Amino acid sequence: MNKRYFTIGMAGHIDHGKTTLTKALTNIDTDRLKEEKERQISIELGFAPLYEDEEIEISVIDVPGHERFIRQMIAGVAGIDLVVLVVAADEGIMPQTREHLEILKFLGVQSGIVAITKIDRVEEEFIDLVKEDIFTELQNTVFEEAPFVLVDSVSHRGIEDLRTMIIERLKGLEMRDIRGAFRLPIDQVFTVKGQGTVVRGTVYEGSVEEGQVLKVLPKGLNVRARQIQVHHHQRERAFAGQRAAINLSGVAKEELERGDVLVSSEHFIVTKTIDVAIHMVSDLDYIVKQRMPIKCHIGTAEVMGQIVFFDRNEIETDQSEILCQLRLDEEIVTKRGDRFIIRRPSPQETIGGGWVIEPRGEKYKFGYRTIEQLEQKKEGTPKERITAALVEEKSLTLPELIKTTSLDEDTIVNEINSDEFVLFNKKEYTLLSVIETIQEELIDRLGLYHSHHPMKHGMNKAELFHSLEKTFHKSLLEYVLKQAVESQQLKKKEQFIALQSFMPSVPKNWQKRTENLLGKLRKDGYNVNPLSHYFQGEGIPEHLTNDLKRFLEEQELVYSLDGQYYWHGEVFKTAVETLRSKTAAEFTLPEVKEILGVSRKLMIPFLEKLDQMQITKREENKRIWQ
């Protein structure tokens, strides 16, 4: 898609002519409310289309200038690409203008134009003095190098010059990202008769299309985009940078409010604690203290909370960047890089602003180690952030990575296209270093297990995974185990895992006694004593008997008849061969007694063992060879 979409904002002091200028540029009166008409001030955000051709489409937001409507002003400016700072020639820079400049700086607005309005009200020679005064006031602000345009909205003097300058500057800017997930912070909610609930806002990123299923966060409401309008014209899609009104089905007007966010994905983080980098205003009226109540404006949301410092307890004058945390009273929707403003609730004033380093902040200890940790988060490249997330979580799906790192899908896919990252189960990512760590841990655990249990085939997989599952997802452990078996580092028999080189064996210090035990058992033939008798006779301690019995059975050195009596492996196999050779397809108990000479006490368990091993099958009083 070649066409690009931008939204510009009109900002400045009340009565400096923002709305009149907007009307002169667009031929639309953005003061729609009756109260706005009566009081001749803007209360809500006003919107109008400014310009459109094959390459570019531009919308205008007229933000309220009165200090009582600063929330609306912040909500409007938060989504714009260029600001026209409106300064009246007959008044110059005013206190409200300075506050707007601070807000624009904190919101990261980089491109601006200064429109000096009402020039027909002052003498020609006075204009140069006004320009000089404004130029001085704008030093060290985002507007210090902004071009000046002289306009009069009533006579339309300079209006075309301003329009042309806006278009040319925007054509030189990069538009917002339309590739990622859709996000629209809602700044207006209303109903249209016969249509239902409509929300309006500036599309921050991504795109939305008619009929698309969306979600309203942080409320978690599922909705559908029934219709989309851009400046009262129905569209099939809306893109990042556009002002859009979206008719939603599945939700009532009363369920929504300004500050909610309309999204197309679960990637976006809902949080109440954010790690941030902030700057304070240049001239604080009051000291900012540790855990002081603040009002945070982010996107279109306005949320109370407190500011938490980790390297100080108060700020009186400090123009350096401060790494700290905002702990909010209500949930917000945000991602790394989002801009925000913080204001003092009482007395009301803007005290600072900045950007989100980490949307999911945790509780940290006071001290410089925390500051160093936040510094690392702040400076991290996309690859470092992805790596850090996988080091922390060990494995994540792509949606989880997007949510955790606050990076878009394309950035993540590009960054993880290297040998350092591993995709497994077709949907989960981990680090090669994490896989190597797990392999080493499995090998170490099995080595230790074999040394303690040399007679066992291996370690039960559930036991091997048990403590590891506290750190690693089971799906990751299964993947690493499969890879280790395929590469012949480990071997697997049923549920037992062992090192490839491991062979079960009797511990050296018990080998001679075990050989003696087996010799006596073989010598006693069919008429054996309980196996415990042979263990006791060789002085084999009770704590070894279970493992040794299991080992002897697994190696087919002995066969258990009933858990108490055992025959030597050779004796058992000889008994089966002898019986098979001297009987027909069917045989009875008397035949067995006559052929083997075994007492009934052992003959019945022996035959039941044959049934259990599916060598024979019992039918009434006879056995049938299988």
UniProtKB/TrEMBL annotation:
Assigned keywords, A-Z: Cytoplasm, Elongation factor, GTP-binding, Nucleotide-binding, Protein biosynthesis
GO MF annotation, one: translation elongation factor activity
InterPro entries linked to this entry: Beta-barrel_SelB, EF-Tu_GTPase, EFTu-like_2, Elong_fac_SelB-wing-hlx_typ-2, P-loop_NTPase, SelB_WHD4, Small_GTP-bd, T_Tr_GTP-bd_dom
Any single biological process term in GO: selenocysteine incorporation
Localization per Swiss-Prot or TrEMBL: Cytoplasm
Record-linked Pfam families: Beta-barrel_SelB, GTP_EFTU, GTP_EFTU_D2, WHD_2nd_SelB, WHD_3rd_SelB
PANTHER family with a match to the protein in the record: ELONGATION FACTOR TU, MITOCHONDRIAL (PTHR43721:SF22), ELONGATION FACTOR TU-RELATED (PTHR43721)
Function: Translation factor necessary for the incorporation of selenocysteine into proteins. It probably replaces EF-Tu for the insertion of selenocysteine directed by the UGA codon. SelB binds GTP and GDP.
Protein name: Selenocysteine-specific elongation factor
